Amino acid sequence: MAETPDEWKSAIDSTRPSIARAYDVVLNGKDNFEVDRAFVAEIVKVVPEIYDVATYNRQILGRGVRFLVEQGIRQFIDLGSGLPTVENTHQVAQRADPACKVVYVDNDPMVLAHGRALLAENDRTAVVTSDLRDPQAILGDAAVKRLLDLDRPVAVMLVGVLHHLHDDENPRGIVEAYMDAVPAGSYLFVTHFCASSPDSRDAEKKFLALLGTGRFRTEPEITAFFDGFELLEPGVVPLPLWRPDGPVPAELTVGQRLMYGGIARKN
């Protein structure tokens, strides 16, 4: 784990776009480089609503975390969390109940640097720099062990990240490894790019060509991540349709259908 500013700065590759920094771009953040902005500009050519899609993903994160707190969850592990922005998981959860504990996990060194600054005075939240594809290492991390009691229910969050795992990286097995480590009463929260239109397939080609990741799976493929768990209403749906706070349009745009999400309970 990078411990000093010099170490994390040397670990940053500003010549290639990063997942965390590209997400920061579409959330109108400032922690990104020209290469990340150029990548997003290419995506805008095929999905002009991509900035709105990021907002929909951030909104469902807030709704989902509030829902999970209402269900009695007080422990969260946010895998592939990205760079800190507005309405982060710990802010939403701890606003509902200050006792909530949150561990963020991301493999981008900038997340560690900015996350530590944000969380310097929050002893119920931690940032772990690690690759979510190694559940054993993450679950054995000192910060995870310090904050999370894996004998009590945990919300396992994979919000906007599983589509960055290729099929041959066994994303289903990775999900199962995390869920096997948490007890009954825990929850799985997933959002994912969906192959819901010709534009989405064009976007997938751009992601794979320029970023190297970005698997737009079908609705049944996304739903399969929840197999073995109790998928809660309304199921796996376009993000604006998941327990909305207000009215939604009768017909959704391409952007509103670009990502699907859902929450399931481990019984």
From TrEMBL:
Q: Which Pfam families match?
A: Methyltransf_19
Classification via SUPFAM superfamilies = S-adenosyl-L-methionine-dependent methyltransferases
* A single GO BP: methylation
Gene Ontology MF annotations: methyltransferase activity
Q: What EC number(s) does the entry state?
A: 2.1.1.-
Query: Where on the tree of life does the source sit, at the highest rank?
Result: Bacteria
Arranged from A to Z, the UniProt key words for this protein are: Methyltransferase, Transferase
Q: Which Gene3D superfamilies match?
A: Vaccinia Virus protein VP39
**The protein's name:** SAM-dependent methyltransferase
Native species of this protein? Nonomuraea indica
